[in-house]
Design goal:
Blueprint: H1 2-34, H2 37-48, E1 49-54, E2 61-62, E3 68-80, H3 85-110, H4 115-128, E4 133-140, H5 141-148, H6 151-154, E5 162-171, H7 179-182, E6 185-189, E7 195-199, H8 201-205, H9 207-210, E8 215-221, E9 227-229, E10 242-245, H10 249-266, E11 270-277, E12 283-291, E13 297-298, H11 315-324, E14 333-335, E15 340-343, E16 346-349, E17 358-360, H12 361-366, H13 370-381, H14 385-394, H15 425-430, H16 439-450, E18 455-457, E19 461-466, E20 469-473, E21 477-480, H17 486-502, E22 516-524, E23 535-544, E24 551-558, H18 568-586, H19 588-591, E25 606-610, H20 611-621, E26 625-627, E27 634-639, E28 644-649, H21 664-673, E29 677-682, E30 685-689, E31 702-708
Parallel strand pairs: 2-10, 26-28, 29-31
Antiparallel strand pairs: 1-8, 2-3, 3-4, 3-5, 6-7, 8-9, 10-19, 11-12, 11-24, 12-13, 14-17, 15-16, 18-21, 19-20, 22-23, 23-24, 25-27, 27-28, 30-31
Helix pairs in contact: 3-4, 10-18, 11-13, 11-17
């Protein structure tokens, strides 16, 4: 009996304890819910909230005249949060009333489905109370604006369930033009799944200024692991600054097209072209093109700031040293020995065999004689090579150019005290071997000769802007007031003019304006194969017009193995000449000095224009038109005493027409139909065009027309 009472007592005690524990739990739960609920809810939210970075709007890169070279275009991803209280309240009455019109407007703005399809999708998201449903990716800014003005979204700002996530894409409106120098700004996911930013060119150099200050956005984690932005919690980013470059789009287009034409015609490996303003050091154009595996060309590498053996354009530096030290003058004789000279167990060859023996040093320079330059270096600097090297250092060739671009290679100048110096190092240096400098460094020296001896630092950026206001400005930097004496400078200028007048560059001579410059041809090694593939680098460096220079320019082209044509005058020279020709027709300062060709006045007996216009005129004067052409919309008409003789023709899309003799109005109509950009200078009829008749053209390509009056 006692045992039974003991068991009952223990059972009642356990029951009582359980009851008390239950009551305590209930009271605690009630206390937490009613009293501490706000605290624990905020703590819970804090565990599901986090700040995420918001990228600032990247700044824009402009040309000197204000045209965009690289800019960020906003794009948006649209998500639906139809599980929010604002959409679901009162069983979604507001949403259901707007569903039909909303579906119609989404279909109209976004496309990609009928209103019925959108209605089905929206209703499905609503019924599931989906918190983060992707509706569309990468809509443009115009579509974004239209969506924000839809009634349901506009008037239910915080209760519409639409979430717009802004992104940006970096675009280059001018495509290929100066693409490597302007640079790229792009992101990609690497093999480890990490997001990697890839910048080059100005985009990389000025990345910290362009990208601005990153903002923050508070996001909340919801079911499924997705994060939804918390409205009103953004810390706005500070947009990036804008870069105003020195690039002139018109000059850039001229340089790019001239270089591309030569590379394609000769299947060259790569090439670069730089145009600099003589008085300021501004880079007006910088083109870099490399051949791709499919045979096309694109801006794949900045060859302009990459070192290589310069070849014969370096002979200007050798002449400068000897003239400045007064070891020679231009009339000092030298024996070229027919273009072959043995020294130090090796043979110096001129690039072309000849019969020249006793000539002056000016003639040796104009002939681009390696023998002449090697003898000059050996005779006067063999026992004092450091004196020769000192001249190169005075020209700043032992340092980088200092241009505003990351990735510029450093020059390599042999040290006479170094272990790699040999008996033949100096003579080979004299004509551009055993030394490596970039094309831009070479151009700096030629620009100094054009600029009365003043050595300038080249630069690509005029100013940094923020919200239309100047933050900082870059101006001309003089590295050295004079690279040599006035006497030496005049002799160097005479040598460079002589190259075009009677030397290796005489094929570039014309009667309309003067050029000064130097050809260069250097054999380059092909990796482990050495020189067996006979790859040559062609170059031409100079300035124009010779008497009052405005622009200096260098063209460097690497030819394919065993190329049939590879001399500097054959490959690089014509590119230089074409650039000069076109700039003389579009630049007001150069145009004034251009000696225009004279044409017989054809206005009395020959016209070019629209066929229908000629028919109207013929009917009015009572003369018939005899058309021997193809009954096309354009005609060339000639007159005699009895009738009008015509030859009509029609344009072919994608092919450049012959515009010579056309008035500007008809020429513009013809070219605008082809969707070409036109820049015309002068008055009268078209007397020249930058793209020859019959050549293939592409949409957006620029055509330069030169108009002029004619005389008998």
């Amino acid at each position: 009996m006692e045992t039974k009472k003991d068991i009952l007592w223990r059972s009642y005690l356990i029951y009582l304890l359980m009851l008390v524990l239950g009551i305590c739990i209930f009271v605690k739960a009630l206390f937490i819910q009613r009293v501490e609920g706000g605290y624990w809810k905020s703590l819970s939210d804090s565990l599901h909230l986090e700040y995420r970075e918001m990228d600032a709007e990247r700044g824009t890169i402009f040309s000197e005249d204000g045209r965009m070279l690289s800019s960020s275009i906003p794009f948006f991803d649209i998500y639906l949060d139809f599980g929010s209280e604002g959409v679901q309240e009162k069983n979604g009455i507001r949403f259901k009333k707007a569903l039909d019109s909303l579906s119609i407007q989404l279909s109209s703005i976004l496309g990609g489905g009928t209103p019925g399809a959108y209605k089905h999708e929206l209703m499905g998201v609503f019924n599931r109370e989906d918190r983060y449903h992707l509706l569309r990716k990468n809509i443009d800014f115009k579509q974004y604006q239209l969506l924000r003005n839809i009634g349901f979204i506009k008037y239910n700002r915080n209760k519409n369930g639409f979430i717009f996530i802004e992104k940006e894409k970096r675009l280059a409106p001018f495509g290929l033009l100066a693409n490597r120098t302007i640079g790229l700004s792009r992101e990609y996911v690497d093999s480890m799944g990490n997001m990697v930013s890839k910048n080059v060119g100005l985009e990389k150099t000025y990345d910290s200024l362009l990208k601005g200050v990153t903002g923050k956005r508070l996001v909340r984690r919801i079911a499924g692991g997705a994060f939804v932005p918390v409205e009103g919690s953004e810390i706005e980013p500070e947009n990036g600054k804008d870069i105003i470059t020195t690039i002139d789009i018109n000059i850039q287009d001229v340089a790019e097209q001239a270089l591309l034409k030569m590379l394609e015609a000769n299947e060259c490996l790569n090439g670069t072209c730089i145009v600099m303003e003589v008085k300021t050091g501004k880079i007006k154009a910088i083109a870099n093109l490399g051949r791709q595996t499919d045979g096309s060309y694109k801006e794949d590498f900045n060859y302009a700031i990459t070192r290589s053996e310069p070849g014969s354009t370096f002979k200007l530096m050798t002449m400068l040293a000897a003239l400045e030290d007064q070891y020679i003058n231009l009339n000092t004789p030298v024996n070229l020995e027919g273009g072959k000279w043995d020294f130090g167990g090796r043979t110096v060859w001129d690039s072309e065999r000849h019969n020249h023996t006793n000539v002056t040093y000016k003639q040796a320079f104009e002939l681009s004689s390696n023998v002449g330059m090697a003898k000059l270096a050996v005779t006067h600097y063999y026992k004092q090579p450091k004196k020769f090297i000192a001249h190169l250092e005075r020209l700043n060739l032992n340092r980088s150019s200092g241009i505003n671009l990351l990735g510029e290679s450093t020059s390599v100048i042999p040290n006479p005290s170094g272990r790699n110096w040999s008996d033949v190092t100096l003579p080979w240096m004299s004509f551009g071997y055993n030394i490596s400098i970039s094309p831009l460094q070479t151009l700096m020296v030629y620009n100094a000769v054009a600029n009365n001896g003043k050595l300038l630092k080249p630069y690509l950026v005029n100013a940094i802007m923020k919200d239309g206001k100047m933050v900082s400005e870059f101006k001309t930097t003089v590295l050295r007031d004079s690279i040599c004496s006035k006497s030496t400078l005049l002799q160097l200028q005479s040598c460079l003019e002589g190259v075009v007048l009677s030397g290796t560059g005489k094929s570039l001579l014309n009667r309309f304006y003067t050029l000064a410059g130097k050809t260069g041809t250097a054999q380059v090694a092909n990796g482990n194969k050495g020189y067996t593939d006979h790859i040559y680098q062609s170059s031409f460096a100079g300035y124009f017009p010779a008497q009052n220079p405005k622009y200096s320019c260098i063209v460097v082209i690497k030819n394919k193995p065993f190329a049939a044509r590879y001399y500097g005058a054959q490959i690089a020279g014509p590119v230089f000449s074409e650039i000069a020709n076109k700039l003389f027709t579009v630049d007001a300062d150069l145009y004034a000095s251009y000696q225009h060709p004279k044409y017989a006045d054809s206005s009395k007996y020959e016209w070019n224009g629209a066929t229908n216009d000629f028919k109207t005129i013929a009917k009015g004067i009572g003369k018939p038109i005899l058309d021997a052409g193809k009954k096309g919309e354009w005609s060339k008409v000639m007159t005699n005493e009895k009738n009008l003789a015509a030859s009509s023709w029609s344009t072919q899309h994608g092919s450049m027409p012959d515009l010579k003799g056309f008035g500007l109005r008809d020429a513009l109509e013809l070219l605008e139909r082809q969707q070409l950009q036109v820049i015309a200078t002068g008055k009268g009829k078209v007397i020249s065009q930058s793209i020859p008749a019959g050549m293939a053209v592409q949409k957006g390509q620029t055509v330069y027309l030169n108009l002029g009056s004619t005389i008998e």
